[in-house]
Every structure is written in structure tokens, then in C-alpha cells.
Amino acid sequence: MVVLEMEKSSSDTKSSSNNEAMLHEAPSVLLLDGDAGDYPPVQSFQDAQTLLQIESVKLWAIAAPIAFNILCNYGINSFTSIFVGHIGDVELSAVAISLSVIANLSFGFLLGMASALETLCGQAFGAGEIKMLGVYMQRSWIILTAACICLLPLYTYSTPVLKLLGIRHDIADLAGKFSVKIIPQMFSLALNFPTQKFLQAQSKVVILAWVGFVALIIHIIVLFMFIRVFKWGLAGAAAAYDISAWGIALAQMVYIVGWCQDSWTGLSWLAFREIWAFLRLSIASAIMLCLEIWYFMSIIVLTGHLDNPVLAVGSLSICMNLNGWEGMIFIGVNAAISVRVSNELGSGHPRAAKCSVFVAVFEPLIIGLLSMLAIMATKNHFAALFTSSEQMQKAVSNLAYLLAVTMVLNSVQPVISGVAVGGGWQGLVAYINLTCYYIIGLPVGFLLGYKTRLGVQGIWMGMIFGTFLQTVILLIIVWKTNWNKEVAEASERMRRWGGQSVD
Questions:
Q1: Which residues are CB-neighbours of 344 under 8 A, at least 6 positions away?
Q2: Which of the listed residues 24, 37, 254, 497 has the most CB atoms within 10 Å of its CB?
């Protein structure tokens, strides 16, 4: 009915300009009905404006709930540390190290393994193979559960590992005990991440926001009961952490079973078909993501060995904290563009996939540039939010221009990584990350930081150079991508990994 009314309305303007009318009404009709076909060619500014508006709505409708869900998950970690901080300083340090080192390593690896599901579920949903989403999710459950078993030694032997890294012995002992108690939280991720990607592929992301919000509220209440009322100490904090993690995972699963009956048809033996090919893509995804996460973690390690580590690490931590809050938005965009690209490739819409990439790069870049201007305008003042030390504020001010550049780069880099996941290019990006980050970026940062007088600024410059090089290479790859070929490869992947026999 809407399409008929728009066609009737557009017919009144055809006499003014035949070409303009054709280009104006084509996007309106095609984009209102996702089954109608691919986007029409863009041949005027008005066409570009129409596509920008429509893609923006599609992109942020996915990105905003995911970003909110990530903020809620971040809040669960933060409130755990806040409540533990009232127990004692040593306990706070122990929990912070356990969550930031042990739990963060497993989190990044498992999230990377689950990212393979973004490619497959997204393309299957776009191709109309709705029932295969449940099969792919079950395959991911199997692989991530096995990965959790492999990660168990990291938790059980976390005390000697942390001592080996130079952590003070009393803190390492407490952190090790806490790490053992949060092993159930790690196994919850084997259910949580696949169900999350399953829902994201279908753009059912509002439920993720609600689950994250309710889980955060319940987590705060449980923390208060276990720590302040029952006086269970670190054991209570760990129990609350485990309960919240499993609550999120089970809530998502209940929603899938109850409200996703078109894409969830129950357990299937097809989950064991092509599992080795699925495992290879999962490992490539994990390597790709972990290389990025560990790269940005390594700057803290390098900085901690400078002549004045307290000032260097403190000023860098303040800058990274601000960069992290901005990064929450772009993680949401990363997931959203992965969904958009995989859906459009699976649907056989190469032009729509290409347009979604351009919009997803353009809008975060604008946000990154605005963030850069805000940092430069307040470079002598924003550190006062974190510290009253004038020396620390001055050190942060000296790093402000590097923070501003990093914010611009980090507005584009996660988006391009999301495009890679949506297209199934994880293996290629893993090689690019290894080269740009570890063969080029880290050595340059080490030389500038330790062999010159630049110190922490030099280390950060080297890291920025590695990120810049990786971003430029990925932008070139995206620019030269043959999207028709990507559609064909997505179709072949669905045929080969859909549990069908290959002749």
C-alpha cells in the first residue's frame, strides 16, 4: 500500500525531469521492501542523500542497542570493582588484575571465536536460510565450550602466571583465588556469545539491550546482598559475577526458544557437519580480534618500564579511559556493519553492501573528528576529572594530541574490522594485523619510546603508526573489493557449510 501511494505521488512529478524522477523514486520503492532487490545506482546528490538517510536508520537501529548492551556489561565489571574496593585496597587490586588480565584474555579469545558466527549467521539470514542460524549457533556452542576447557589452565594456574608477570605476591595470590571462582563465568560465554551473534544477525538487538540493563540492576542488588549484607567478601563478588553472567546467557536462550521459532528448530545433528571448516574460521576470527586487543594492552606493558612509570602509566590510563568510552560506540557500529554487510551479501545485494560500508565509515569518522576537536579544545582541563595532581594533569595535556589522533583512527578501524567479519575475511585481516601491529607498530613504538627522549609519547606514536597503516590497507582493500564476487562466495559458503553434501 505504501509503495503504491509513493508510485502515485511520484508519477505527478515525472514531467519535470524523467531522469531525476526515475532516480528519486527507485530508492524509495526498493528500500521500503527488502525483498524487492538491490539498491539502484546512485547518479545524483539526491540519490546519495536518500541512501544515506535509509542506511543511517538501518545502521544505528542495530548499533545503538548493541552499544548500550556493551555499556551495561562494562558496568557489571565496574560495579564489581567498586564494591570490592570497599573491602580493601589489596582486594581491589586483586580483582582488577583478575578481570583485566585473566578474564580479559579469555573474553577476547572467546569473542573472537564467536565472531565467525557473525559471518555465517548474517549471510544465512540474508540468503533466507533462516533454519541454518540455529545449526550454526550449535556449532559455535560446541567449539566455544571446547575452547573454554582449553583455557582452564589459565584460570587454575593464574597465581604463578601473575607472579611471573611481576605482580606482587599477596595480590597475585588473591587474584588467583578469585580467578578460580569465576570459572563458571567463562563457561557462560560459550552460551552467551553464540546466542548474541544469533540475535544480532536477525537485527533482534533491542532484547540484548534490555537483558544487559536488567542484568546490571540485578548484579548491583546481588553484590550488595553478598558483600554488604552477608559479608562474603571476594567469594560473594565472584558468586555475583557468575550469577549475572549465567543470567544473561540463559535469558538470551529463553528468548530464542520462546520467540525465535522460525530460526530455532531445536537441536540438530547438522551441527557436527563441516565443523572443522567452521573451526578454522573461528580460529582466524579469534586471532584477528586478539591481535587487536593485545596490541592495545601492550602499550601499558611497555609504558610500565619507563623511567617514571607512575606518571607515564597514570597519564596514559586517563587518556585510554576516555578513548575507551568513545570506543563503546564504535564497537556497536562494528557489530552493526558486520550484520549489514553479511545480510546484504547473503541476499545477493552487492550494491547495498557497498553503500552500507560507505555510510558506516563516513558517520563514525564525523564522530571521531568531533571527538578530536573536543579533546584539543579541553586538553588542559579534562584531566581534572580524573586527578587533582597538577603534574599528572600536565602529563595528560602533553598526550592530548595523540589521544585526539587515536580517536579519529579508532572511529574508522573498528568499522573496517566489522566489514571484514561480515565478508568472512578474518584470515586476511589476521595477517595484516600481525604485520602492521607486531612487525611494524610495536618495534617503532619501542625505538621511539626507549631510544629517544619521547618516552610514553614515542611508544604511543609507534602504536598509532601501526594502527594507521592497518586502517589504510583495509580501506584500500574495501575500496577495491568486487562485491559481486563477494556475493558469489557468500552463496557458495552457504551451500557448502549448510550441512549439504558437496559433489
A1: 126, 350, 352, 353, 356
A2: 497
> What nine digits make up the cell of 398?
602533553
User: Which pLDDT value is given to residue 212?
Assistant: 94
Domain count for the chain, please give it: 2
One domain for residues 372 and 308? yes
Instruction: Say yes or no: 479 and 425 in one domain.
Output: yes
Q: Which of 273, 295, 323 is the last residue of a domain?
A: 273
Question: What integer is the mean pLDDT of 55-71?
Answer: 90
Whether residues 248 and 315 fall in one domain: no
Residue 80, H or E segment: helix 45-85
pLDDT tens-digit readout, 433-464: 889 988 999 899 889 988 887 888 888 899 89
Please check whether residues 257 and 294 belong to one and the same domain: no
CA angle 211, 213, 216 (to 5 degrees): 105
Residue type, 219: H
C-alpha cell at 337: 556493519
Residue 231: how many CB atoms within 10 A of its CB? 9
Question: What's the rounded Cα separation, in Å, for the pair 446 and 422?
Answer: 34
Domain shared by 304 and 408, yes or no: yes
Residues 251, 298, single domain; the answer is: no
Task: Give the torsion sign (CA, 155, 289, 122, 214).
Answer: positive
Separation of alpha carbons 483 and 318, rounded Å: 41
Assign 132 a pLDDT band (cuts: 50, 70, 90): confident
Of 252, 273, 294, at which residue does a domain stop? 273
In this structure, the answer to whether residues 332 and 414 fall within a common structural domain is yes
Distances (CA, A) of 57 to 54, 246, 356, 360: 5, 32, 11, 11
* 322-341 mean pLDDT: 83
- Residues 124-157 as b or e (16 or more Cβ within 10 Å = b): bbbbebebbbbbbbbbbbbbbeebbeebeebbee
H-type alpha helices, 98-232: 104-126, 132-156, 158-164, 169-181, 183-201, 206-223
| Parent domain of 97 | 62-273
Cell numbers for 364 = 563514525
**Does residue 379 lie in a domain region?**
yes
pLDDT value at residue 317: 73
Note whether residue 183 is domain-resident: yes
Decide if pLDDT at 185 tops 50: yes
As given in the structure block, the three cell numbers for residue 481 are: 573489493
Q: Which amino acid makes up residue 252? A: Q
Closest CA to 133 of 85, 200, 74: 200
Three-state DSSP at 50 gives: helix
- Residue 137 CA, distance from chain mean position: 18
Q: Kindly give the interhelix angle for 275-303 and 456-479, rounded to the nearest 10 degrees.
A: 150
* Through-space distance between the first and last CA atoms of the chain, rounded to whole angstroms: 45
pLDDT tens profile 290-299: 887 777 767 7
- 371 — phi, psi (to 5°)? -65, -40
Sign of CA dihedral 246, 294, 102, 279: positive
Instruction: Say whether pLDDT at 16 is over 60.
Output: no
Tell whether 84 and 227 lie within a shared domain. Answer: yes
The answer to whether residue 67 sits within a structural domain is yes
How far is Cα 407 from Cα 397, in angstroms, rounded to an integer?
15
